[in-house]
Amino acid sequence: MSRLTLEGVTRRFGGLVAVDDVSFEVPTEGVTAVIGPNGAGKTTLFNLISGALPPSAGRIVFEGQDITGRPPAKIAAAGLVRTFQLVKLFEDLSVLDNVKVGCHLQGKAGLFAALLRPASARREEATVEARARDMLAFAGLSAFADEPASGLPYGRQRMLELARAMAAGPKLILLDEPAAGLNTEESAALARIIRRIADEGTSVLLIEHDMTLVMNTADRVVVVDFGRKIAQGTPAQVRANPAVIAAYLGTGKPAANDAATQEAAHG
Ligand SMILES: Nc1ncnc2c1ncn2[C@@H]1O[C@H](COP(=O)(O)OP(=O)(O)OP(=O)(O)O)[C@@H](O)[C@H]1O
């Protein structure tokens, strides 16, 4: 079954076609990766899906509903959340409070209810606290719950961003280069967390330059180049696809094996 469907999605910036007639489906199960050389249009694609930018043409359907051009908050409330290429945390808040902010995305009690503190809002607060602590445990951050987010080392800040996004209980999570800046060990831990997120029923769509992570986590891969989709399939299929190899060769680097593909993807 399809969680997300893109039909002929296009985005122009003046004369530049950053995303050009792209169609693909993100199935409910598993991890889907979007790869492509620098400037291929991956981040623009995420901006279109999450509502940060309206498409110039095409349709985006999430859970059977047309979400094309809807505001980002509405799309997030429907269960489609994203993380960013650069970490965006509330630095002055504690690690736990950062995750609670994510939980409130799915909370029912509005501002007035929370201010008046009727029983339902208090119950919700307790649920939020419990869920936030669960998410911290999930991301291996329980020991840092009361520390300011700004005090965490970079790798843990990325995990915190992931925990916060998951706290909203999303049906689909968009991860923009989650392994950027992580060392090998952190990257391996991230791969395990991504697999677990998918196994627990949240569909994952990720942009990633780290080919080891893509090969280890993705069930299917969509390849874009100059805004167009040039291939899709299993990681092994796309790696052997001549159009994909040519796209990476076009950046002046070889793509004949794992290490070389990773090199090329870094462009
Ligand atoms: N707001 C904008 N205005 C004008 N051009 C833009 C804008 N955003 C992106 N572009 C252009 O669209 C193209 C695709 O950019 P995009 O950032 O989506 O690529 P990418 O695949 O995410 O690249 P990278 O891997 O380097 O992050 C690039 O040529 C970029 O310069």
Task: Describe the protein's architecture and organization.
With 267 residues, the chain is α/β, with parallel strands linked by helices. The protein has a domain at 89-167. The chain is built from 11 helices and 10 strands. The chain is globular. The chain starts with a strand and ends with a helix. The relative contact order is 0.17. The protein binds adenosine-5'-triphosphate.
Strand line-up of the largest beta sheet: 6-7-8-3-9-10
Fraction in helix = 40-55%
Order of helices and strands: EEEHEEHEHHHHEHEHEEHHH
Radius of gyration: 19 Å
Strand content bin: 15-25%
Number of beta-strand segments: 10
Report the uncertain regions: 252-267
Mean pLDDT: 85
GO molecular function, one term: ATP binding
Pfam families: ABC_tran, BCA_ABC_TP_C
Protein name: ABC transporter domain-containing protein
Keywords: ATP-binding, Nucleotide-binding, Transport
What order do the helices and strands come in, and which of them pair?
Elements (H helix, E strand, L loop, with lengths): L1 E12 L2 E12 L3 E5 L6 H8 L7 E6 L2 E2 L5 H6 L2 E3 L12 H10 L6 H6 L2 H20 L15 H14 L4 E5 L7 H16 L3 E5 L3 H7 L2 E6 L2 E6 L1 H5 L2 H8 L8 H9 L1
Parallel strand pairs: 3-8, 3-9, 6-7, 7-8
Antiparallel strand pairs: 1-2, 1-4, 4-5, 9-10
Helix pairs in contact: 3-5, 3-6, 5-6
The structure holds adenosine-5'-triphosphate.
